[in-house]
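FIELD: query
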Amino acid sequence: MFSRLRSDIQCILDRDPAARTAWEVLTCYPGLHALVLHRRAHWCWNHGFKWLGRFISHVARGLTGIEIHPGAKIGERVFFDHAMGVVVGETAEIGDGCTIYQGVTLGGTSLYKGVKRHPTLGKDVVVSAGAKVLGGFEVGDGAKIGSNAVVIKPVPAGATAVGIPARIIPSKAGESADVSSTDRKFTAYGITQDDDPVSQALRGLIDNAAGQEHQIAMIWQALEQLCAQQQVAMPGDAATRETFEADKFTQLVGK
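FIELD: result
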């Protein structure tokens, strides 16, 4: 029990730069308190003490602002950061090393009892503030859910889900979508500018337009030289210089 508690405290120290000491984490972090109380409630639930498990869960909700059903399964080194308003449903499963921020709902869309209604999070998943993951599907290892996203379908391992309803950005070489080097680091709130598919599409169109204008300008310059050699007048509307302000448009969509 104490070794697991030490592991929980250490994972918070590793992921939250505001955490200064183990004593501060132990006494002042409601996410840790919610985990400790959930383990008691989960034990009661699995051993037939259903009401007691629900009562402990209810008390934990009042003390921490985090509502975790006693039937939910939570792995090791899970960090509820801030986490006010988090709701975790009965059949939800949270894998090792996950990070869940405030306002997250791991909810169900089915009203049938005895079936898998809530999502399963793999290892090292980051669910950002305000995200809603709804349904009995899986979110793969290392995936990230962007802030306020509404996820209603499976998310592959290493991918990023953003938007309403969530759009899936595939992983790059098995890593999260915003990782550009082999040094994989924890990303606070699980989202960066490179995870916005609309921004990525606009930047691609801007780059393509800039490239085409460059090619056209080069063609006109070649024609200008040829006309000079042949002593032929150039058309008055010849675009021998690039005027498309690619950098300006890139800044507008986010670089």
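FIELD: remark
The CA atoms of residues 69 and 90 lie 5 Å apart.
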